[in-house]
Every structure is written in C-alpha cells, then in structure tokens.
Input
Amino acid sequence: MDLANYRKGKPCIIEHMPKNNLLNSMGIREGSRVSIKSRQLFGGPLVIQYGSRCLAIDKKIAEKIKIKEV
Amino acid sequence: MKCHNTKSRGLPKSAPDDIRILLMGNPNVGKSVIFSKLTGVNVMAANYAGTTVSYTEGDIHYGRKTATLIDVPGTYSLDATSPAEEVAVNFLEDGANVIVCVLDATNLERNLNLALQVKHKDIPVVYALNLIDVAESKGIQIDVDKLEKELDAPVIPTIATRNVGLKELLDKTWERALKDPVPTEPTHISHDERWAEVGRIVENVQIVEHRHPTFWERFGDLAVQPIPGIPIAILVLALSIGFVVGGGQGIRATILLPLLNNVYVPAITTFVSSFVPEGILLNVLVGEYGVLIKGIEWPFFLILPYVALFFIVMSFLEDSGYLPRLGILLDSILRQIGMTGSNVVPMVMGYGCAVPAILGTRAATSKKQRLMITGLVALAVPCVSQTGAFIALLGDQSVFALVFVFLTSLIALMVAGAIMNRLIPGENEPLLMEVPNLLKPNSNALVQKVWLKIKQFVYDAQGPLLLGILFAALLVETGLLLVIANVLEPLVVGWLGLPKEASLALMLGIVRRELAVLPLLALELTTLQLIVGSLVGLFYLPCITVLAVIFKEFHFRLAIYTLLFTTLTAFIFGGVFNQVARLLGFQ
Output
C-alpha cells in the first residue's frame, strides 16, 4: 500500500521509498514510523507526523512511498 | 538597505588571527534569536524555516576579546541542495574556531543527523539544546549528561527567547575558542550508518511520555484539516484586515488628524514664517508640498498607523508558525498558477516589503519559483506603505473602491501567475515543507520585533520620502510641474481620465510605491478617478530599491523588463478600465 492512500491517524512503517536527499535528512526513510494527520482538497499535500514533528508532503511523493501497517 | 542584511554571498575576508564562530543548525531551531541575543545585532527571526537565507555576522565580546559570530542559514544536512545550504557548506570549508550547533529539543532525531555531520568536521563544537520548554510541554525529556558523552562536546540546554542558558553557552563557546584545537581526523560515514547512530543515541538519551496536547497544539492540528482549517484561515485573514484597516482609521480619526490639523500644522507654519520671508523658500518649507508639512504628515500621520498595525499582525503570524499552515491549505490552488504552498511565506512577506520577499526566494529550490515570486510581488502585491496610502485615499471616500482595488490585485496575481507559469520553462516542484510547532508568541519578543520593524521602516522610508516631497515642492513652486503635466496630458488626462496634476504621482512613484498614490489625496477625485489612479499606482513600477534588488539578485535585463512590463501594465490596464467605465456611463 502507498502512503497517499493510507488511513488517517493510523501509524505505519515505511517499507520502500524513492531516493530523496531532503526527505532523508529530515529523518523520513525506510523503517520510519509515520502517520497521516490530514489530507487536503483537490489532491493537495498530506501532513504526516513522525516523532513529535509534522511535515507537509506532496501527494505525488506520498504515492511513491510504500508502507506497511503496524 | 542596511536593515535587510543583503551582503553578497561570497565568503567574508577575515584577518587570520580573528576568532570565527559559526552558528549552525536545522532550519527554524532559533539560530537567529540566539544570534540577536549574543551580538545585540537585531536580525529578523520567525517561526518557520528559511528566515535567514544569506548570512549575517556580528561581533561578540568576552572580557577584552572580540570574536565574529556568523549566523549561517539553516540546513538539514551538509549535502547542499539549495542556495542557502550551499552558503552553509562554504562556511565550513572556510574554517572556524568553534561551531555553535543549535539543536531543537522537540525533534532530536532529525537534529542529531546534522549534529553528527558537524561533529565529524575538524572543528570544535558546542551544542545548544534549544526549545527545551516546548519539548517539556510535549512530554519529551532529554538526559543532557548522556548526550554530552555521546557527542563528546558540551551541550547547553537553552530557551533562547527567554535568555535561559545563553550565558553558559557563551562561556563554553569562549572556553573552546581560546583552547588550542586538538587536531582530529574528519571521518566520513554513510547515510545509513549515521542514521543508525542517531537512532542509538536517541534511544539512549530521550524519554517521551504521553501528554495531553496543549490548546495551541490542538489548534495547530485543526488548522491543517480542510475543515475547520479553511474557515479558520478566512477568519484569520478577516480579523487581520479588520485590525489594520479599522484600527488605523480609528487611530487617525480620533488622535492623529486633530493633532495634525489643530496643533502641528498651525504651529510649524507660524514658527517658520516668523523668520522666513514669503517666497519660494517659505513655500518649499510649509507650502502646498512643504517639506515640513507633507514630509511629516505623509509618513507619520497617514502611513505609519497602518504600517504599525500591519507589523503587529505580521509578527504575530510569523512567530506563531501559522503561515506555513496557510500554505498547506492553499497548495493545490497555488499550483494552478505555478506556485506552491511553500511560496505563501515570501508572498505574504511581499505585502510588507518586496525586498525581503525577493531575498527570501533564495530558500526556494528552483529558479522558476524565484522568478515567479519576484515577478508577482513586483507587479501586483502592494507593499505596506502603499496599502496604507490606499486606505488613506479610498477608505474615507469609498470602501467599495478600496475592496475593488484589492480584489483586482488578487485577480491580477492569479492571471499573471497563470501566464508566467506557461512562459517560464521548468517543472513545478513537489511540496516538501516542515510544519513548525504552533506556538503562542512570546510577548516580549513580539513587542521588540514590532518596534524594530517600525524603526527600520521610519529609517528606510523617511529619507526617500523627504527627497520625493522636496522634489515635488520644487516642481510645483518653479512651475516646472505645469510644463511636464502639459507633455503628459494626452496620457494622464486623455487616456487615464485623471486631472493634469496627477502626473506628479507618476513622477514621485518612481521613488517609493506610496508616493504613486499620496499626491492624489489633494485632487478631489471622483470615485472612478480614485479607482483608476489607484490601479495605476498598484501596477506601476515597484520602487527604485526593488529594481536595484532585482538587478543584484538576478541581472540587469530582468530589472529593465520588470520596469517596462509593470509600467506598461499600469497604463494599459488603468486606461482601458477608464475608457470602458466611461463608455458604460460611470463618472
């Protein structure tokens, strides 16, 4: 399953994601535990929570992030 | 220009025996606040990533010694993926005596990733563990002693906005700076190895217990849900506009106008005419465009009330961390006009002044985004002084005209954005933006910031305004204005439908944006003329300072294009609007 279509508010673990330096140095990488905080209208960005912080991430990127439930 | 710290991006030349201290860290961890407190130099800080896009340096004193402290732009890594990050990497390569690395205690994991990269350079480091108050409220506890051992360097817990821990940070930094460095081999480890190390350290030093979210945390979460986020955004904007327009009108009507008309003008006129004989000099000083009349009335009695209230609203929005949330809500709409949610911050800054907005685009990752924001801000975003002038001109006579002018500016932004998006090559980058903690702004910091901005405004605006008004007074008193007005008559009277004297606004508008509007105040215009005059002022060229910044940040050609394009847009749009409105029978 990809992150963009995952349920809101449920934690999940990133299994596979494309190489992205900025995401990596922000601490989002394979094995990270994240959850979706909000979705926007008209295909806008997702807000995801990791640790105690939040990140807005384009839907196109989120679609390429494969996750598994925990 | 002094205020915006626009030093060139090259590296500073320092004498070899200078002590250089680099202030580094992730974006939005409080580097600029610490910098201001340690050096006494005020720099702008705000609660979002990318406030410092160039670097700032200042002196810090300790006993009889002096060192240069350099506020390096925030970076997530030392990979250099944006111009701001390249600046940081260059500084490291240039060497320093000590690095003060600021860590955000609410997000230790991500901050340690950079901390370890910094640690592996051959420079002594002192760590400031900032925002420990926010971390505590989130239930995060960090064992500072263990962290010191892990990082093999001093770690000082700080709350920079409230001066907690800064003295100790300074002590430790100097201790390290004055000690002879022990040479260490810079080591290089891979991304994965480093993250594994980060994970181990976090596990070892941090305990997180569940806390009930505070009011501001819950509000911050709600503000990024479409519902109620969009109604909240509308409410925030409505309150902000109401505060600036309503508050400004109120202050002017009850305090400033009586003070001006009953006290200041009679007093200064009597005073000056007591020793200056009638003639050109007297008129230049206290006549129709008297430097001592308009030079005081325009900046202080007309513009400043709105400017000050605007700064209060802006500082509150900046320090709370709300603006990036607005960007998230607007992202999908902004994409239609070639922008992204992360551009909201520089665009909103443009409503203050175009200069920091254009400089702020350095944090943008693509050239296209930089060009888009620069173009849009220069064309259709009125700066705070011009907004003040619009309210002063239109607010009393026709609120409808005021609303109309601002709606036109929004529509122009959309249309120009859509066109530029087609014309400028390049892909629209996907959004990737940190969402800062929503914080209750610290009231002391807020008051200080507003005061600093007001001081800067008066400092920046007063000189050009006085020169502009002096120029106007000379034009009027020597009769030169009539000659120029006759030349411009076909444009100003025939095409735009304004009185001949309005040509003065076109001349003064080159100096500052509000001067393209203020001369219209004295002309007793009809509502149609007010709107046409305002529209011309809105799209007319940005002030001379902005053109200079565009030249410096991009190239001369772009500054000339901006000049021609904005001026043509102003005349074509203002004229067509005037002609059509008259055909339809409006006066």
Notes: The CA atoms of residues 236 and 317 of chain B lie 9 Å apart. DSSP finds 23 helices and nine strands in chain B.
